[in-house]
Write a structure and sequence with these properties.
alpha+beta; Protein ENHANCED DISEASE RESISTANCE 2; five-stranded antiparallel β-sheet; 9 helices; six-stranded mixed β-sheet; EDR2_C; about 30% strand; EDR2-like
Length: about 300
């Protein structure tokens, strides 16, 4: 198999297709880097942001999946579809390094939108990326940043999210970091914040009419770390919940405490804007415990079309 074919295989085997950024209905795409504004080379003196430009990582794939339990620790499972393709393609040779960002969406079904990125370039010693990979979870939580743009959507969602929502994820939401020799996965639990859950619950009702850009980067907090560079970004558009691929959990967990109903009072906070809400204080209901996570594996013995190898 030629080196590019394994990437094509990962891209093509996802539940929704890779399409062009300006026409990706019920699919995903890579938006241009310049749609995101990041801290410029003199940000701490001038507070001036600049268009982000090129990404540090290359897009590798996208998964839109659902399960009866929360989906996590995906790349730690040798039967997960991306891990399996890479292990098959590089059984002895040095494997490409993979980054995965798993956005766990609270709903009556447990949906996950997972973006995969890769690089074969070596990380420079003592660079910000190197510090992030070698750092502890406290360091990662203080640095991993999300930029969200609502490209297209109804007024109520645009009002809730804001024009460009920016937050350091680990300060607002529970993040679990799963690392291996050639990968790092970040499981981002939207359900760990009741207010974020309310906003995403609202947006999910319009998901088939939304176009959203999401970018991940490591925040620069010192002049020597400027300008900021985006790790990777993806766009999803008009996603159909019915197109999410069902996956089989490896163990049955009671997730009733995860899927709690949202108090009515939280909806009063929605119009204040996503960025303001996430920066306004600590998590409302704390981090979820590890017992609420489950590794997901494909059921190779199941011949139904609903549960597929992912």
């Amino acid at each position: 198999m030629a080196s590019v074919e394994w990437i094509d295989r990962i891209i093509s085997e996802g539940a929704v297709p890779l399409l062009e950024p300006d026409n990706c209905s019920n699919g995903w795409a890579t938006p241009p880097g310049d749609v995101f504004m990041v801290r410029g080379p003199e940000y701490f003196k001038t507070r001036v942001k600049i268009p982000a430009g090129d990404y540090l990582l290359k897009p590798l794939g996208f998964d839109w999946i659902k399960s009866s339990v929360k989906i996590g620790e995906i790349l730690d499972d040798p039967n997960s579809r991306v891990r399996k393709v890479i292990d098959d393609e590089f059984p002895a040779a040095e494997k490409p390094f993979v980054w995965a960002f798993n956005i766990q969406v609270p709903n009556k079904d447990n949906y996950s939108a997972i973006a995969y990125f890769t690089t074969k370039e070596r990380v420079l010693e003592d660079s910000l990326v190197d510090k992030f990979l070698k750092g502890d979870n406290a360091f990662r939580n203080s640095r991993l940043k999300l930029i969200a743009n609502i490209v297209k959507g109804p007024w109520i969602v645009r009002k809730a999210v804001g024009e460009q929502a920016i937050c350091v994820i680990g300060r607002a939401l529970s993040c679990k970091y799963c690392t291996g020799e050639n990968f790092i996965e970040v499981d981002i639990d939207i359900g760990s914040s009741m207010v974020a859950s309310a906003i995403v619950h609202l947006a999910f009702g319009y998901i088939s009419t939304l176009t959203v850009d999401l970018a991940f980067l490591i925040e620069s907090q010192d002049e020597s770390e400027l300008p900021e560079k985006i790790l990777g970004a993806f766009r999803f558009s008009d996603l159909d919940p019915a197109s999410a691929r069902s996956v089989e959990p490896s163990s049955a967990l009671n997730c009733d405490d995860v899927q709690t109903s949202l108090p009515t009072r939280l909806w009063k906070s929605i119009g204040q804007g996503f960025s303001h809400i996430l920066h306004s204080g600590p998590q409302e209901d704390g981090s979820s415990s590890d017992s609420q996570h489950a590794k997901i594996v494909a059921d190779h013995k199941d011949n139904t079309t609903e549960v597929k190898n992912w």
